[in-house]
Structure formats: C-alpha cells, structure tokens
Amino acid sequence: MGVAVSGGGDSVALLRLLLELRPALGISLSVVHFNHKLRGKASEKDERFVADLAEKFGLTLHVGQADVGKKARQEKRNLEDAARRVRYEFFRRLTESGLVDRVATAHTADDQAETVLAHILRGTGLAGLAGIHPVTEDGIVRPLLEVRRTELRKYLRTKKQAWREDATNKDTSRQRARMRKKLLPLLENEFNPRTVEHLGALGGLALEEGSLVEALSQDYYKALLKFENGTARISAHHIEWPFSWPAGETANRALGKRLARSAFAGVARKQGQLAIEHVNQIMQLASSGENGKVLQLPGGVDVRRDDDWLIFLARERITAKSKLPLEFEYAVPTRGAKDVNVAVKEIGCVIRFRSIDWPDAQRETIEKDCAVLDRDKLQGALKLRSLQPGDRMRPVGHRGEHKLNRLLNEKRVSKWDREGWPVLESGKNIVWARGFVSADFAATSETRNATLVSEEKA
C-alpha cells in the first residue's frame, strides 16, 4: 500500500499509525509524495522531509512532480482544483502500473465536514452531500475520515514526531481556509459542538442512500438511455416521466434528474461537474425546450433538443463535425459502365450504381435497402450532390411533390443529421435521395433496364 505523505501533520500521522498496524494488518507500505511546485523552496523542503522519513523507516519512496501553477493557468482552473487533479492522476498511474495496489490518503473528519459544508453552500444534491468517499473504484482509501485533526496532532506529539506546516493552509483568501479558521469554529462554539461529527454523519448517510438509489436506478438507465458513437440519447418524455407505473411527480422528477446525470457522465471526456442549475436546465429543455436548442454543460458536453429526443454529445465532436465540408457534387459516369462506385468522403460513404436488365425473375433478389430506377427514364447526366434548400421531389407513395426537408421532418431526421444528405439528379430532376425514390423515375412492371442505387459506409 502506498501512503500519500505531503509532510503535513495529518499525512505523517497516517504513516506512523499504519507502521504500527502493519504487523496486524499484514500489509507492506511505501511512501507516495507529489511535489506541486507551488511554494518554491518550501515545496523542495517538503519533498526532502518526506524522503528522509521514508529512509528512516526503510520504505520505498515514489515521487511525482508538476508545475501546477502553470497547468492551472493553461487550463483556466483554480490552483486547488488543478493540484488535486494532477495529484490523483499520479496516484492512478502508480496503481495501474502495479507499483502499489492502492493509495491511502489522510483526509480527516474535519476535511469531510469542510467538504460537505462547502458543497451545501455551493448548491448540491445527494451525490455532493456524500462528500469524500472512504473508498474509491480507482484504488484510493481514506482510513481517517472519522478522526479529528486535533487527535492526530496529539498522537504525533506522543511520538515526538515532527511534521511540516503548509503556510497556504492559513491563507484566508481561500474558501477552504476561511471555513477551517472561521466558519466551522463559529458553528462548533456558538451552535453545536458536534457540528463536525454531524456533517460527517450526513456525508456517510448520503453516500449510503445514494448508493441504494443508484443501484435501484440501473435498470432504468439500461432501458431508457441509448449510448452509441460517443453520444447518449434519451426521450424527452422519459426525462420528464421515466417510471412506467404511477410513482408520482416527485419520484419521476428525481429519476429524471438521475437519468440526465448518467447521460452526462457517459459522454463527458473532460473533468466537470453538473450543478443543480445545469440539471434543472436539462429538465426544462425536456419539458418545453424548442427543437434545435442546445445547452452547454461543464466537461465539454452539449445537450440538444432533437424533436422528441435529448442528445448528449462532446462539444469537440460538434465542432469537428461543423468544420467538415459537407457540400459536395460528383458526376456519375454510367454510360458504358455496368457498375460505378462513388466515394463520398465528406459523409464517409460509398454510393453504388449498378445497371442490370429487369426481368421479373430477378426482382426478388434485389437487396431490401436498394433503390431501383428505370434507366430508360433518366434524362441527361447523373449528378450526386448534397441536399440544398428548396430541393423537391414526389416520392413513391405520395400524390404530390414535397420539399425534401419536409419529408425528412416526417421521418424525424434531425437538422444535424441531414447535413450532407445525398441527392441524385438526372437533368434537373431529383430522382433519388437517401430514403426516397422519385415516383416518376422508379422501376415499374414496364421497366426493362434498371439502375440500382445502394449505399454503404466507406
């Protein structure tokens, strides 16, 4: 087990306690230290102090370093958030490489109370109330969450063990330091001396209740959420009213919010947390949002209203797609050629044209998704191009001519998905579009020569 030791009192106490318990627990220990390079020479002295401590007890030392200040500026994050992210990334690399099986950190009951209180003040739900988790899926354990910071200092003094104080912990320009120095003492001294204990208990209860609700919600996630190609899709109706039985408005709204959070988590590629206002915006988009509206969420995720669906997808995915040159035009040289393949790189597909005789005996062998045109009715050169505003045709099964955009609306094809929609012209007539065949050019019982049109991914 790796023990995360910063040099401060809490982490040094954790190391000394685990050294005492090592025979009873049957564990081997190593020391893990991360130098954030935020305090100049003081950071270097912290690293040397921890190295000396590891050498004193004959333990292996794992050290990571990063210029967190520079990284925070580049990523436009606050220092505490940036420091936490790079530190835990270092811990993850250690566990994944097998150098340690897990990493123990020295978060205390005071840290838990500060975290829960900070989340309450910021605005949070059940997940935020859970605060700091005692065990995480990525190998982090926190055995001191029920121990007060003052008790650890007393323990170190009995051991005559030195530690280093981080001056930034006293910087009350930071919210966490203000809570530690001002707010929590005020609550303990003037309202309830068991404030820290009660906030910790609230965090534990929220974690238990949240785990139960999450487990009970899994079947709904699987049934109602559809993940494909880096996106998440859910019916707006199911966000509003997911239960199939009369559970009441409050229960449905609670599950709808969890579905929204799950969709977000399944798509987010960057670190980011949904606040209550973000979830409420998603719920509003589901209940009354107009078609085509897009919400920008943390973590580089957008959610858009697409007819009766909410689509969650990474923002860079939208940006990359919008930069593609989706307008195209290709000549289709069918004269003298029995088979012609046109690769349309703009939309990643190949449109195939095959000329055949059209006796009755062969009609049943045509693939289901293959369109059949009467080749003798085609007038002039064939041109394959992208959908343009105002395009019209009379598809098979319709009495009159309609705009293609109207036909695509009826098929519930979103305005994003219809970008680069392939259309085939003969002369000035649209004879085929993806999903449609012109009634004026479709093969009939009188057809003798046919052109088959099919599409497949490149």
Strand content: 15-25%
Mean pLDDT: 89
Number of helices: 14
Low-pLDDT segments? 319-323
Helix content: 40-55%
Question: Which structural class do the helices and strands define?
Answer: alpha+beta
Number of domains: 3
- Reading off the top of the CATH hierarchy, the class of the largest domain is best stated as Alpha Beta
What is the CA-based Rg, rounded? 32 Å
Enter the CATH topology name of the largest domain. Rossmann fold
Considering the protein shown, what is the CATH homologous superfamily of the largest domain?
Answer: HUPs
Distance between the termini: 50 Å
Report the strand count. Answer: 21
Strand order of the largest sheet: 3-2-1-4-5
Please describe what this structure looks like:
With 458 residues, the chain is α+β, with helices and mostly antiparallel strands. The protein has three domains: 2-202, HUPs (Rossmann fold); 225-321, 2-Layer Sandwich (Uridine Diphospho-n-acetylenolpyruvylglucosamine Reductase, domain 3); 329-457, no CATH class. Helices cover 41% and strands 21% of the residues. It is built from 14 helices and 21 strands. Strands 3-2-1-4-5 form a five-stranded parallel sheet. The chain has a five-stranded antiparallel sheet with strand order 6-7-10-9-8. A five-stranded antiparallel sheet has the order 11-15-18-19-20, with no helix packed on it. Strand 6 (226-228) and strand 7 (231-235) form a beta hairpin. Helix 3 crosses helix 4. The model is unreliable at 319-323 (pLDDT under 50).
